[in-house]
Design brief:
Elements lengths: L6 E3 L7 H14 L4 E4 L6 H9 L14 H5 L2 H13 L9 E6 L6 E6 L2 H18 L16 H14 L13 H4 L2 H8 L6 H7 L2
Parallel strand pairs: 1-2
Antiparallel strand pairs: 3-4
């Protein structure tokens, strides 16, 4: 593994995908100041295929109306072309299809963005890469949007704490419209603290 001062490069080889991500996670946890310089090669057909398999069969289609079933009829060829566009920096995300769903406990509706199928694959692949780097930074009590965890796990942990500990009060707080107001500019600067591979940062910001 070639390493520059303050940076870490993870080079492609014959390792299995899970092994590659494990090595990244271990490096990120061991060296908090490390900036990864070579990550985008992980966005290959193998990773994209795993992301495709993880999609729900009944997932809503995006603006192009392409379903998982339709895309899967020529899966290898489609993924090969997608990976080729990614590595030629010719990939351009499609507009997100906007739908509105009922908001529980309110008469308001919640906006929901549905990406095109290929955009879902790219987003899932980048999420795997980012997760390998950042997952080790989360505290044990964090449950939101983490792999293998969900709201039921959080409720179970809260119940155990309340029933078994000396709890005097519980405070519930929410950030109103967080994703509508978060600064993308500062988010990108934050990512650059750990990621020096411009191909990953560029695609994250697309």
């Amino acid at each position: 593994m070639a390493v520059e001062k303050g940076t870490c490069a993870v080079h492609s080889n014959r390792e299995g995908m899970e092994t590659k991500f494990q090595r990244i996670a271990e490096k990120a946890l061991k060296e908090p100041g490390c900036r990864f310089t070579s990550l985008f090669h992980l966005m290959d057909v193998e990773l994209l295929k795993g992301c495709f398999e993880g999609l729900r069969k009944d997932a809503a289609s995006g603006i192009d109306r392409v379903t998982k079933e339709e895309y899967g009829r020529e899966l290898e060829a489609n993924l090969s072309r997608l990976a080729d566009r990614l590595h030629k920096m010719a990939y351009i995300p499609q507009p997100v299809r906007r739908v509105y769903i009922p908001k529980p406990g309110s008469t308001k509706q919640r906006p929901l963005g549905i990406p095109a199928l290929e955009d879902k694959l790219v987003q899932a692949g980048l999420a795997r890469i980012l997760g390998a780097i950042y997952e080790g930074d989360f505290i044990e009590d964090s449950y939101g949007f983490r792999p293998g965890r969900g709201c039921h796990d959080a409720l179970r942990a809260l119940s155990n704490e309340v029933e078994g500990g000396q709890i005097h009060c519980i405070v519930e707080a929410d950030i109103k419209g967080f994703f509508d107001n978060v600064s993308h500019e500062w988010m990108m600067k934050f990512l650059e603290h750990r990621i020096a591979d411009k191909r990953v940062v560029t695609n994250q910001g697309s």
